[in-house]
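Researcher: Good morning. I'm working through a list of sequences from a screen, and I'd like to move beyond sequence-only analysis. For each chain I'm collecting a predicted structure so we can compare shapes side by side. This is the next one on the list. No need for commentary yet; just the structure.
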Amino acid sequence: MNETSGYWARHRFSRRRFLGGAAALGTGLALAACGGGEKAAKETPAATPTAEGLEPARTRGGMVRSFGWDAIALDTLDPHQTQIGTIYNMHSRVFSKVLKYDNVYEGKIVPDLAESMPEVIDKLTFVVKLRPDITFHDTQAIRGAFPQVAGRQLTAEDVKYSIERQINPNSPKSALYYRGSQWEAVDSIEVTDPLTLRITTKRPTSPLIHYLGDNNAFIVPREVVDQNDEMNDPSRMVGSGPFILEDFISVKVVRVVRNPNWFARNDLADQGLPDRPILDGREAVWPPEDDTATEVAFRSKQVDMTGFSDRANGPRIASETGAETMEFPDAGWLASRFLVADSAAATTPFKDLRLRKAVNLAIDRNRMGQQMFRQWFYLVGPVPGAIERWAMPQADLLREPGYRFDPQEREEDLAEARKLWEAAGGPAIGKFIITYAGIPAYLRDFFPQFQAMLREVLGAETEGDLDITGYTKLAQGALEKRIIFSLSYDNGWNDLDDWVHPYFHTGGPKNSFNLSDPKLDRMLEAQREEFDQEARRQLGLEIQHYLLDSVVARLDWLAEINVPVHWPYVRNNWGSPWYGNSFHDADMWIDTQDPLYQGRA
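Model: Good morning. Structure tokens for this chain:
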């Protein structure tokens, strides 16, 4: 593997540390699944650059082009209402937040719109002071559509509106504010002067700092929201971020251009990055399904960076061309959801915990990962290991039934799966429907093998219900609590609260399971109220063990280890555990003096 100099030479992600003792357990197959042997022992690049690791720019301008999923908008472009993670990349280039994650893997939060980190007066009161130099985007098109917004100062009233919008019970879109469960902790927001807010919570809320920097905590101007309380149109994507949206064509391309008036443009001038963004813009083109077409486009430098369906292609092409690869784990993960109790829209056969446990044991996670990702994957629990601060240690996870890969232990799990299925009346269920995602193609192509595992181990007969759009049917069905069993990607998150409270609390906005567990509710509320981070981590581990042992409403399968390839003339390139961190593109630059820049289209 070729590795870049500069940042990547100094900041690395250790896959052996990430796997956390799997080898000591003798789980050779688990290590092999994540690229065992010498490959597992290598130090691989970390994900997100921080200021001290950035390379000063020698040249300016140019449009960085890549293949990517950014152009998928299956529900809405509204940054507060969408559930589709890929669209977060566009949002994070265009909009700003009070705070932002400088490094998601490490959980490092820094100011964005805020002048400094919020002052925590007590466990109920937080004071936020904004920078005075922030303005919304200003272009001829914006001046024509929203003259009252173009170039105006962003103030505390915009922050107040963006939070309160998501907890307004009178909104016709109130059911679509999936992050509303965060902001419901807020009791009041007082604007004490044009740049200062005093936020008071109803009860101690430890993750409020995180909420202000979460993936979707974007600050929007009231004027771009229509009378139906939505902003589902590219023309309404008016923010204060480093880039301005120029073009959005669904399932084709997203193109953003440099915001010359970005408030943070000179924040890194002393590190050789003045007047950011350095680039003229960033373009993400919908990827071909065929790796051959992707390779041709990359080799001819029609795109500067890309991933491949066959993860081995990136390292191979890098070794043949002098291009470079990175390696970093996803927090977005493959999962299945059960409907665990009847809803108004559906009757479920999976009320019995034993049936859900049987399915969890029957699916071979190692086989699943090898088929889709070769060796570039890892096994995940309720919090994927990429978010190391909150995840169960891999050594603990690999002791859990369904995650064990010692041959004898695997046989024990299969025998237990059959026993549970029979005892709970599984054979009497008959054929049941599994709704599965049509995007990416490799997930769709794997689905028959998923069905085969359930048939071979449990004798279960299933019918596939393909969401050909990717996730529209899945998202709507989850909202209405009518999908019995699913297989799809779920979004990657940042804080413990993201992973557990919206999904598993009674009435949580992502609780598509129709789950209500009073003991679990108390645990979920307790982690929100705990300000000691180590004590909160321990509560998080208890919650995860309880989910695995006593709930089993969501089956967490595995996540990818990304192995994209890029040309070395793209400097300050970075990787992220999931979508929504693309504000880092502001630090990128194209080195036109690099020898491999020759021949770029």
